[in-house]
Each structure stands twice: as structure tokens, then as C-alpha cells.
Design brief:
This protein is an alpha+beta fold. It contains 13 helices and ten strands. The chain is 39% helix and 11% strand. It has a three-stranded antiparallel β-sheet with strand order 1-3-2. It has a three-stranded antiparallel β-sheet with strand order 9-8-10. A hairpin with a 6-residue loop joins strand 2 and strand 3. Helix 1 packs across helix 3. The protein is globular, with a radius of gyration of 23 Å. The C terminus is likely disordered.
């Protein structure tokens, strides 16, 4: 089964149609691509092709041909496995840009600034050595609709509040979050946590590492910040949900599904890095979010307990007061 024009280039109208379909959808699984390719091949070859007739080899051939055509434009079709389902996701990505460039055509500058604050909340505020949540609740996200106030001290020691960006309204913030899901940048879990989608993790991989991880080439002796973006020990992809080593100083993280094959091969449930017993109960992602229910019941409504404030910030309340407590320095 081929889309070749017969002109020796290997790039036909069928390939163009496939690429256009990919651009329109941004992401595909093989199963989603089968009926699309079947329709394209039916029109191109003049005979009916059923979705079941399209093989993974056919699909891979079209992806490879498309990548050859779009490579000069810093575009690429990449693939990665979904962290929860392990279904292989193919995404049309810009391999040379950051989220600011990516979002510029869909959002205003103030809306893009809001998105950046949401990213910072995911990977800094809600990503501490104790609680690597890397996700955010809607209430915490919408409260970021305005940038934090900038404060400065005058010569007589009086603290004043400066006026920065106007930000956006909470309603606009809700619309932006909805658009990010519709465009395939965010996913929303059953527990209403926003997290990055497979497409976002593929497209923004380099930017995430550069933005939130310390540059290993920086001068020795300089205090380094935590490596907030970590890779699964098994598949080497970014991990934002899964399991972690019980030893807090150990950097080993593994996707839930990756643990099955890893420990089957390893034949022991020990951390592959430090050999600590692997509990399976130390998590990365929304399961790492602290449960505030017990703390709320044991402390009065007016309690000023700092750990409670820290936990509330992760779960979406007390954002303004506790954001600084979640920057990782106190954990």
C-alpha cells in the first residue's frame, strides 16, 4: 500500500493530505490514524481501502515521509507513550520553539503570561522534594490570573506596592485553561487536576529542562536548585505521574506501567539506582498531593500552621499566602 506518485520523489498528494490531517489534529494514535489513512488511500488509489487494511508499517511510512518533508522547517512528528495508558501518541511539534512562540497565535500577551505562571506553579510551587505533584487544581490556576504584586522599599523604609501587568480576569483564565485542553496542551484528570499532555511533554521537553533544571555546566560551588524535571528510569521520558524511590535523596522515578517490566526483568522490587526497597506507595503526580482533610480536622479554621498552609497551596487554597513556602527551599 503506497501513496507514491510514481515520480521518484515518494511524496504524493496522499502524503500531503496525511500531513494536512496531522496539522489539523496535532496528535494521532495509530488507531485514530487508520480511518484517516484509509479515506486518503481510497481517494488516491481509486479503490476502497478499509481502516483495518492500514497497517502500522503503512502508518510509519507516511510519518517518515512527512518528517523528511517538514524537517527543514524545524517541524517534526514525534511519538511517546502516554504515561498512564502506555498508548503510543504521535504529535506534530515545532522542534525549535518555546511555549511563548507556540501560544502567540492563540493567546494575547497577558494570557501567555498567565500560562507561564501556571507552568511555574506546576513545576516549582507544586513540585517540591516532599510533594512532586506537577499538576494544579482549577482554583489555584485561576487565582494566578493576575501576577503577584511587586513590592519595593523607599528610602525612608516604607514598603510600597508597585503596579505591574494588569493580568486577566478569572473568567478569561478559565477560558484559557479550557482552550489549552482543547488544543491538546493540558489534560484534566478525574480529580480535576490540570497536567501537561503527551503532546506538551514532547514539544516542550527541551524548554522544560532548560527552564526548570539547573545547568550542569554552571560554575562549581554555586548553590544549585533542584532538578525539577526528571526522567523515568525505564523509558527515559519525562515523568510527571508515576512512582518514586522511598529514599528522598534518590532521583529514581518510574512510570507505573514501566515498573511492571522493570521489576519483572530485575526480579526484585528494589530501586534500580540505590537498591532501597521499592514500596510502590511513594508517588509522583497528583497522588503525591498532601491530603489536607486530616489536618483541617485537627486544626481550627484559624490555625496558622505552616505545613497546613503549604499543603493548601498545592491543593488550590491559600495560594497567595503559601506560594513562597512551596518553592522547595523549606523542604
Amino acid at each position: 500500500m503506497s501513496g507514491d506518485n510514481g515520480d521518484g520523489t515518494g511524496y504524493s498528494n496522499a502524503n500531503r493530505a496525511f500531513l494536512q490531517a496531522f496539522i489539523a489534529r496535532s496528535t494521532f494514535t495509530f488507531q485514530e490514524a487508520q480511518p484517516v489513512l484509509a479515506a486518503i488511500l481510497t481517494a488516491h488509489e481509486g479503490r476502497e481501502t478499509q481502516p483495518g487494511d492500514v497497517t502500522e508499517t503503512d502508518f510509519s511510512s507516511f510519518v517518515s515521509t512527512a518528517n523528511d518533508a517538514i524537517a527543514p522547517f524545524d517541524l517534526e512528528i514525534r511519538s511517546a507513550y502516554h504515561q498512564l495508558t502506555r498508548k503510543r501518541i504521535y504529535a506534530f511539534v515545532n522542534s525549535a520553539s518555546d511555549p511563548i512562540t507556540q501560544l502567540a497565535t492563540s493567546f494575547t500577551p497577558d494570557e501567555i503570561s498567565f500560562v507561564k505562571r501556571v507552568f511555574d506553579a506546576m513545576f516549582e510551587t507544586n513540585n517540591t522534594p516532599r510533594h512532586e505533584v506537577m499538576a494544579i487544581k482549577p482554583i489555584q490556576a485561576t487565582r494566578l490570573h493576575k501576577p503577584p504584586s511587586s513590592r519595593r522599599e523607599t528610602q525612608d523604609g516604607v514598603e510600597t506596592q508597585g503596579s505591574g501587568s494588569q493580568g486577566i480576569t478569572m473568567l478569561q483564565a478559565e477560558r484559557v485553561l479550557k482552550s489549552l485542553i482543547e488544543q491538546g496542551w493540558f489534560e484534566k484528570s478525574n480529580k480535576s487536576y490540570y497536567s501537561l499532555s503527551p503532546r506538551a511533554l514532547m514539544e516542550l521537553r527541551g524548554w522544560l529542562i532548560e527552564t526548570y533544571n539547573e545547568d550542569e555546566s554552571e560554575e562549581e560551588g554555586r548553590q544549585s536548585r533542584p532538578q525539577r524535571i526528571k526522567m523515568c528510569h525505564a523509558c527515559k521520558e519525562i515523568i510527571t505521574t508515576g512512582q518514586r524511590c522511598a529514599k528522598r535523596s534518590c532521583q529514581c522515578r518510574i512510570h507505573d506501567i514501566c515498573t511492571q517490566n522493570l521489576f519483572r526483568i530485575q526480579k526484585s522490587r528494589k530501586c534500580p539506582s540505590c537498591k532501597t526497597d521499592w514500596s510502590g506507595e511513594d508517588f509522583v503526580g497528583e497522588r503525591a498531593a498532601p491530603d489536607t482533610s486530616n489536618r483541617r480536622s485537627s486544626h481550627g479554621a484559624g490555625s496558622s500552621d505552616r505545613p497546613a498552609a503549604r499543603e493548601e497551596a498545592v491543593n488550590g487554597s491559600g495560594v497567595g499566602e503559601a506560594n513562597n513556602d512551596l518553592d522547595g527551599s523549606s523542604d
